[in-house]
Design goal:
about 160 residues, mainly alpha, Arc Repressor Mutant, subunit A
């Protein structure tokens, strides 16, 4: 077996070990319009174009960051798309609608992907704010601030929903 085959089999083992956590991460961070498997696949494919997973110092952190970046890119693209649809709808006097999906994470989906990512890391995976910040490429204080603001947003949404019922 040559070194190329060793890297491939090593990457397979790394991917198999990381996949369940990466998929959950993509479900939390990604937009509801994108299948989490698609985000994971795209992050891994882009990573493999330049690195072997087994060569990375911390492949889980690298791929998590790649997933957050892809989610943000998709969110920006969807915002442009929604803006275009809204303009076309106004021109045609047709109301634009955004699909909604039932999910266990429905309340978290009200938050921006970056805020969801911090809350997921801190609350679900029990990471410290420093570790969450390192994964997301922000400071510990920025992670604390995002988490606090995200919790406040969720409280406001839930209180508003409670009053409406």
């Amino acid at each position: 077996m040559d070194s190329g085959e060793t890297a491939v089999s090593g990457d397979d083992a790394v991917f198999a070990a990381l996949y369940p956590g990466l998929r959950r991460w993509a479900a939390v961070c990604g937009p509801s319009e994108v299948d989490p498997d698609d985000l994971v696949q795209e992050a891994v494919a882009r990573t493999l174009r330049s690195h072997a997973l087994s060569d990375l110092e911390d492949p889980a952190a690298y791929l998590r960051r790649a997933i957050v970046n892809l989610a943000a890119n998709h969110r920006r693209g969807m915002a442009r798309w929604r803006g275009a649809v809204a303009r076309l709808s106004r021109a045609a006097d047709v109301e634009a609608t955004t699909p909604s999906y039932a999910s266990d994470l429905a309340d978290l989906l009200r938050l921006a992907p970056e805020a969801r990512a911090v809350l997921w890391l801190v609350e679900v995976e029990d990471c410290t704010y420093a570790a969450a910040g390192a994964v997301l490429g922000i400071t510990e204080e920025a992670a604390r601030t995002r988490a606090a603001r995200a919790r406040q947003q969720l409280r406001l949404h839930l209180l508003k929903e409670e009053k409406e019922q």
